[in-house]
Amino acid sequence: RRQNSSSAPVEASSTTTLSPALPVxxxxxxxxxxxxxxxxxxxxxxxxxxxxxxxxxxxxxxxVDMHAITLAWDPKALRANxxxxxxxxxxxxxxxxxxxxxxxxxxxQHAQLQWIFACLTTMARLDNxxxxxxxxxxxxxxxxxxxxxxxLQAADILLYRAxxxxxxxxxxxxxQLAQHTARVFNHHHGKLFPSPQRLPSDLPRxxxxxxxxxxxxxxxxxxxxxxxxxxxxxxxxxxxxRAVTDFPAEITFDPETRPGISNLLLLYKTIRAMExxxxxxxxxxxxxxxxxxxxxxxxxxxxxxxRENVRHLEGNLEFVERVMEEGAEKARALAADTxxxxxxxxxxxxx
Length: 351
Ligand code: ATP
Fold this sequence. Notes:
Number of strands: 5
Number of helices: 12
CATH topology of the largest domain: Rossmann fold
Largest sheet: 3 strands, parallel
Distance between the termini: 24 Å
CATH class of the largest domain: Alpha Beta
Radius of gyration: 21 Å
Strand content: 5-15%
Bound molecules: adenosine-5'-triphosphate
Mean pLDDT: 92
Order of helices and strands: EHEHEHHHHEHEHHHHH
Number of domains: 2
Helix content: 40-55%
Structural class: mainly alpha
Low-confidence stretches: 1-18
C-alpha cells in the first residue's frame, strides 16, 4: 500500500521531515446533500483528480453521510444522494484504483474518534465557529450534531493522520479546529497526529449565481443558484443567462464591489485557463450578455464528458456498488490502525 500508516506514532509537528518513501496522506470529504456543483468542482474535486496522480501523495476521499444528517434529512433522499455522489465523483475523474473513495458511515472509527475528540473540545470553541452560527441561526431546535460537526470533521482528517486537506475557503475555520484538536490530543496523550494543512485550489470560493454575496451551495433550495455537473446544456445556458450581476454596463473585475460579475469572470478565467487581464481584454468591447453566453458555452464544454460519464455509470450500478464496498474495506483497515494507537494512548486498552 502507498499509505503512511506505520504503527509507530508519527511526529505531531507539521515540519516533520518525511521519508521520501512514504507518500503524504491527503484527506478530503464531501457531503451527499445534493448534486455536485461548480463550487465543489473548482474548490475541491478538480484538485483531487490531480493529487491522485501525484506519486508523492495518497488521497483519501469520503462521502461524508454522517455530516449530512446534522440538519433534518429524509432517509430515502439520503440513500439516493449517497449513490449519486459516488457516481458524480467517478464521473469527474476520481479514480478508485488510485484514491481510497469511501462512505463515512461505513467506517465506524469516525464516530469512535469523534467521541474522544468531543471530550477534548470545549463548547465555547465550537459555539464560536462561523458556519455553526450561520446554520443554527435559521432554526430554533438545534441538534447537538450540528455543534459537533467540526469535531467529526477533525476525526475524519486525523483518523488517517492526513497532513494535507484540499478544501474550499468555507472550511478554513474547521481546519483550524482540527489543528487545535491534534495539538490538544498530542499534548495530553502523546504525539500521534500531524497538524493538517490546507491545500488551496485555484478557485477556492465560487459564489452563488443568484446571491453573489453567498457561496454556491448544494443545499440551497434555489437550483438556479448553482450549476450542477450533470446539468443539460440548456440548463447551463439558462442559469448563466439568469446569473445576477449589477447595474453598470461595463465589464470590470472587483470581487469586493462587484461580486456577481467578478464571479462569472473568475469562472471563465479558470475554465479557459487565461490570465484575468487577457479575459478583460477579450470582453473589453463586449457586454454582460456576451460574457454570460460565452461562459455558458465554456461550462457546457467543460461538463460534457462528465455528463456522459454520469449517464454511463447510471447504467453500470454494479460497478458503483463495488467501488463503495471496496473503498469502505480499505478505509476500515487504515482507520483501525490509527484507532488501535488512540485507544492505547487514551487508556481504553493496553496492547
Ligand atoms: P452544503 O450546501 O450541503 O453545505 P456544499 O456545497 O457547501 O454543501 P460540502 O459538501 O460542504 O459542499 O463541501 C465539499 C467540498 O467543496 C469542500 O472542500 C468545500 O470546501 C468545497 N466547496 C463547497 N462549496 C464551495 C464553493 N462555493 N466554492 C469553492 N469550494 C466549495
